[in-house]
Design brief:
Layout (H helix, E strand, L loop, with lengths): L2 H15 L36 E6 L4 E8 L18 E4 L9 E6 L23 E6 L4 E13 L5 H5 L5 E13 L2 E12 L8
Parallel strand pairs: 2-3, 4-7
Antiparallel strand pairs: 1-2, 1-5, 3-4, 5-6, 6-8, 7-8
Length: 204
C-alpha cells in the first residue's frame, strides 16, 4: 500500500468507526482497507486468521463485561457497527489486528443506544491510567492490557496516526463518542489507549 493510499484508508476508517455512537452515517472504506497488508501494525493488517478473535471484553473499573461482536464490511462497503439493541455489545473491527497480535486492535461501542438509553461504553471516559482490561479470545486464552491514556478529542481532529499507526507490540484501542450532543450525535470521541499488562493474582 502506498503512503497516499494508506493515509486515505486510515482517514476513512477513522470516520467510519466513530459512526457507531450516534454520529453521522458510516462512510465507505477504500478498497485498500479490505485486505491485510502484512504485519505493519496498521488498521488494515492482522485479520483473525493471524490470531484468535476476541469474544468477550471485561473492564472492571467501569463495570463492563460484554460479549464482543465481529464487525466487518457491509454490502455497500461501509464498516459495520454494533446493532442498536437493549442489550448493547461492543464490536471488534476484524480488519484490525486480533488482540495479542502486533499492532493496534480496535474495539468500538456505543455511549448511548437511542431509546434504550446508555450504551456499553457509557463510562469509558472515566478510565484512568493503569486500569485493567481483559479480552477473552475464541481459543480460550485471555489477553490483558493496562490503560496508558484516555483522550477526548473533537471528531474533526481525530488523531488517526495515533490510533491506527504502526506499533511494535500488541496494543488496544477502545473508541466511543463523547462530549456534548451535536444534533443526532456527539461532538467528540473518547479514545482509550492500552498496552500489554502482566497477569495479576485473582484475575480471570
Amino acid at each position: 500500500m502506498t503512503p497516499l493510499a494508506r493515509r486515505a484508508f486510515l482517514t476513512s476508517t477513522a470516520a467510519v468507526l466513530l459512526a457507531g455512537c450516534g454520529g453521522p452515517g458510516p462512510a465507505k472504506v477504500s478498497p485498500e482497507g479490505t485486505a491485510g497488508t502484512g504485519r505493519t501494525g496498521s488498521a488494515a493488517a492482522g485479520h483473525a486468521s493471524a490470531g484468535s478473535a476476541p469474544v468477550r471484553l471485561r473492564i472492571p473499573a467501569i463495570g463492563v463485561d460484554t460479549p464482543v461482536l465481529r464487525l466487518g464490511l457491509a454490502a455497500d462497503g461501509t464498516v459495520q457497527v454494533p446493532p442498536i439493541t437493549a442489550h448493547d455489545r461492543a464490536g471488534w473491527y476484524r480488519h484490525s489486528p486480533a488482540p495479542g497480535q502486533t499492532g493496534p486492535s480496535v474495539i468500538l461501542g456505543h455511549v448511548t443506544v437511542g431509546a434504550y438509553g446508555d450504551g456499553v461504553f457509557r463510562h469509558l471516559a472515566e478510565l484512568r491510567r493503569g486500569d485493567r482490561i481483559a479480552v477473552r479470545l475464541a481459543d480460550g486464552g485471555t489477553v490483558r492490557f493496562a490503560v496508558t491514556a484516555v483522550r477526548t478529542v473533537a471528531k474533526a481532529d481525530f488523531p488517526t496516526d495515533d490510533v491506527y499507526g504502526n506499533v511494535d507490540r500488541p496494543e488496544l484501542r477502545l473508541v466511543t463518542c463523547g462530549g456534548p450532543r451535536s444534533g443526532d450525535g456527539y461532538r467528540d470521541n473518547v479514545i482509550v489507549f492500552a498496552a500489554p499488562a502482566p497477569s495479576a493474582a485473582g484475575e480471570r
